[in-house]
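can u do me a favor
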């Protein structure tokens, strides 16, 4: 039953995407690229923030200090 519900969900999503592609016409590719690019920028920024936090914690651990707290 769970597999069937997933199938219905994905069929609904596919129908919505096909409808949007038909309505947007030539602009569909541009909107797709914009959405993918925006998602990638957000993910890269989050990964950079996580790496910076890790570097600060490691640097504070080597010097014996508490890591700096954001104000």
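np, heres the sequence
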């Amino acid at each position: 039953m769970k597999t069937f519900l997933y199938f219905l969900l994905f069929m609904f999503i596919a129908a919505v995407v096909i409808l949007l592609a038909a309505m947007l016409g030539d602009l569909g590719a541009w909107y797709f690229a914009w959405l993918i690019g925006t998602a990638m920028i957000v993910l890269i920024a989050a990964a950079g923030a996580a790496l910076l936090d890790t570097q600060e914690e490691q640097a504070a651990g080597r010097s014996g200090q508490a890591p700096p707290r954001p104000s």
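The mean pLDDT is 88. hope that helps!!
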